[in-house]
Amino acid sequence: MDWKDKIVSDKNILGGKPIVKGTRLSVEFLLGLFANGWREEDVLSNYPTLEKDDLQSVFAFAYHRNQVK
Prior knowledge:
Number of strands: 2
Shape: globular
Oligomer: single chain
CATH architecture: Orthogonal Bundle
Radius of gyration: 11 Å
Helix content: 40-55%
CATH superfamily: Winged helix-like DNA-binding domain superfamily/Winged helix DNA-binding domain
Structural class: mainly alpha
């Protein structure tokens, strides 16, 4: 899976923060949920537009960004 298919930035949505394509859910917000103890099941049930591969893309994006620095 290529996270580039799922994670996008648009200056007109959330000021250009990386988001899950087709949503207004930022990578930062979703990672924050996990950092605060949310489980995958919690996120998917509270945000039904998300799919499991969307979350995998969030983590892949974060990993990539950390490796590029």
